[in-house]
Predict the structure.
Amino acid sequence: MKLSKNGKNISASVENISRFGVWLNVKGKEYFLDYTNYPYFKNQTAKSIKNVRLLHGFHLYWEDLDVDLEIDNLENPFKYPLKSAARL
């Protein structure tokens, strides 16, 4: 018996992109990434923002943007006081 190809991994998906930020759904939990704290998403194409993968169950990776974030960074931002110096 030959197995069919797996479907697209949807454990992480971009639900909305607005002028204020990006809404991200990860394993059923929603996060808002505002452009003030996550400036590397501002002025990017919707296609590049939507191209997100969840690796190892806790690591988010945007290949087109070369952006890496861990879910803990989104849930506990106070633990990560350093902010991006990028002003896009």
Summary: The radius of gyration is 14 Å. The beta strands are 12-17, 21-26, 29-34, 52-55, 59-62, 67-70. The chain has two helices and six strands.
